[in-house]
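Try it yourself: sequence plus zinc ion, in.
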Amino acid sequence: MGELMECMCQECGISHIIDLETISLEDFEGGGGKLVSNLFCSECGGQLVLNKKAGEEPNYRLK
Ligand SMILES: [Zn+2]
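Structure, out:
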């Protein structure tokens, strides 16, 4: 298992917690963040943007 990341939908603002290993990232124009290129919002199909690590603190989940 990889790290869990929080990704926010650009359309509806919902946050999705996604395993980092399951997502592909693209550089965002302007360098302000990362776009998720292979997954979309389950609610509206909008573009997801990588927000931060789930839980915000840089701790690692061990399994
Ligand atoms: Zn959405």
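One thing you can check immediately is this: The chain has no helices and five strands.
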